[in-house]
């Protein structure tokens, strides 16, 4: 289990040159369906929130965000060959868009 978690943590990093597809992600843990997706999704969700990719209301549980992403993926099997991080982050960005940024006095003036 530790090896699986380490592998998934490394795979969820956006710095990888070749991101894993959802089809590839499904093959990682065939004996425990869904566990690989959930662990991978947690990494994508954390990173996306930190980078401002989407802005769920405070207190939104991770399982709700995972359910939103999983519903989108289940409804679009034709996209399972796409990068899993996109299949997770796109529906969450649509569901929880970030408010527009406002300029502050410290913003450079262009």
What's a quick, concise take on this entry?
It is built from five helices and no strands.
Q: How does this structure look, described?
A:
This protein is mainly alpha-helical. The chain has one domain. 54% of the residues lie in helices and 0% in strands. The chain contains five helices and no strands. Helix 3 (35-50) crosses helix 4. The longest helix is centred in the middle third of the chain and has 16 residues, at 35-50. Mean pLDDT is 83; it is low at 4-17.
Q: Helix share of residues?
A: 40-55%
Low-confidence parts: 4-17
Total domains, how many? 1
What characteristic shape results from the CA principal axes?
A: elongated
The strand count comes to: 0
- Could you say which structural class the secondary elements and strand pairing correspond to? mainly alpha
Gyration radius (Cα, Å) is: 16 Å
| Termini gap | 51 Å
Descriptive keywords:
single chain; 5 helices; mainly alpha; 54% helix; 110 residues
SSE map:
Layout: H1 2-11, H2 22-28, H3 35-50, H4 62-75, H5 84-95
Helix pairs in contact: 1-3, 3-4, 3-5, 4-5
């Amino acid at each position: 289990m530790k090896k699986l978690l380490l592998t998934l943590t490394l795979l969820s990093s956006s710095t990888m040159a070749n991101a894993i597809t959802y089809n590839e992600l499904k093959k990682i843990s065939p004996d425990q369906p869904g566990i690989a997706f959930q662990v991978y999704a947690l990494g994508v969700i954390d990173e996306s929130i930190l980078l401002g990719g989407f802005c769920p209301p405070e207190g939104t549980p991770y399982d709700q965000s995972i359910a939103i992403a999983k519903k989108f993926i289940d409804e679009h099997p034709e996209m399972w060959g796409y990068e899993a991080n996109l299949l997770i982050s796109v529906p969450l960005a649509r569901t929880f868009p970030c408010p527009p940024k406002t300029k502050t006095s410290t913003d450079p003036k262009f």
